[in-house]
Structures are given as structure tokens and as C-alpha cells.
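[audit] Reproducing an earlier prediction to check determinism. Same input, same settings, fresh worker. If the C-alpha cells differ from the archived copy the diff job will pick it up downstream; this log only records the rerun itself.
[audit] input (294 residues):
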Amino acid sequence: MNLISTVFLWLCFAFCLSMTAAGILVLFRVGRQQMGSEYPLLQGAFILVSVFGYYGLWPRLLLTYIGYDSADAVSALILLLGLPFLLLGLSALLLWCCRLQQRSAHLPLLLAWCTAVLVALWLLNGEWMVHNRVRQAWSAAGVIFTLFSLVVMGLGGKGFVSAGARLGWLGTTAALGVVFISGLTPLTLLSAYEQAFILLFFLLTATLPVLYVYRAERPQGTKTSGFDAFFERHGISKREAQIIQGIYEGRTNQEIANRLFLSLQTVKDHTSRIYQKTFVKNRGQLTALLRDIL
């Protein structure tokens, strides 16, 4: 490897580090009180996908650079071990999209995983192959999860200050999907493909959260605060708000029913819908979530 190639390689590595650092600084400069209870999912998605980038993508280039004889075999093994980080990160991204749009995440996640597994099996068993099996499998998974994220965000209108801001986020996500698609094409055979892929991968994965943080819709000052902001964000009705306040005060369902002149079953039905809207599973999680916003 000549001097120019060496300098370019380390410049690429420095660029990726700077993208990751910028993403972390932007993502963690604001808290869930400002961005919503679903915000940690976006933070987790960025961290997991970035870990995959350093753990799964860079070893191949670095091993090739030092002239390691078994670079392909070792990098393929490392890539396979790093694959869970990518899958978990993309799953967290899809889950964040669902929660931001106040939609149930069970069906999109199930469909995304099932589709990814089926496509991966088809690629692994098929004759059509332009790269190693592991590369094609995770490239296909990346395409599928970005596609589902696009659909969920495209069907909703919540989370961004304007339609243009949401369109910018959708365009960046689509570009990331195209980058993943390239891993299924003969472009992978080009000598400069790996460097180009890594640069675009880190650039786009850092751009996604940055676009959201700076273009996210936030509560407007004194318009809503505390419980009111929470109720507005999650689409809580007036009756559900009364029940939430009772839960926060530590009252039992029967005590809430007596206080509001409702049947016990009605309170239970309202409570179940509240859990679905706020993405919690029990009273303890709901109470903890309410404490975070006060």
C-alpha cells in the first residue's frame, strides 16, 4: 500500500470518528424531558449501529492494510460476531419510529424480522451471489429494516416541526437503504468500494439523529407543562388523565373507581389503553415515566 493510500485510509478513519463523536455530542446534549420518553431508543440505535461499524466493518480494511494473509477469513468471522449490534441497532431505530408515531411496534418488528430472516435464507441458499454470504445477509437486513422505518415514519406526521424536516429525515433514511442495497450488487467488487461504503455508512447514521434533534417538534414554552405535556404527547383523554393521576398518587384500581364513580372493569380497561399509549407494561413503569417529566 503506497503512501497516498495509507494517508487516505487514516483520513477515512478520522472522518468516521468525527462523525461518531458529533452524533454522540448532539444526541446526549438533550434529555428525554425535552425529546420525549422514546428518545433513549434513538440514542441506543445510534450507539449500537456505530459499534457495528467499528467492530464489523473496519477490521477488514485494517487487516488488509497490515498485509495479514487470512484477512478475508478473519474479517468475515469478526463481521459475523458484530452482526447482532447492527440488528439490535436497526430494531431500536424501527421501535423508535413506531413510538414517535404512537403506533404499536409489535407488528412492524415482527414483519421486519421475519422478512429479514427469509431473505437472508434465500440469499444464503441461492446461486446468485456477488460477495460472501455474511455480507449479503446483513446488507439485506439493513435494506429491510430501513424500508420498514421509512414506511412507519412516512405514514405518520408526528415528531418534526414541518413536513420539510420530516422529508429530509426520510430522504436520509432512504439514502442509507440505498447504501445497504449496494452490498447486494457487483459494486462490492470495486477496489474503492469498502472505503466509500464505510464513509457513507458513518455519515448517514450520524446525520439521522442530528436531523431529528435539530428539527424535532418540542412543546412550546408555557403552552403545556408537566402532566399536561405528557397527556398531549401521548394522546391521553380527559378520563384517562384522571386515572393516571390516581395511579401516580398510589391509589388502587378500586379506589380510583370509587373516586370517579366508575366500575372497576372500566378503570381496568382505561388503564390497559393508557399502557398501550405510553408504551409501558405496568403501574411501576408508568409511575417512573411520570416522575421523569416532573
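[audit] rerun output stored. Observation attached for the diff report: The chain has a mean pLDDT of 85.
[audit] end
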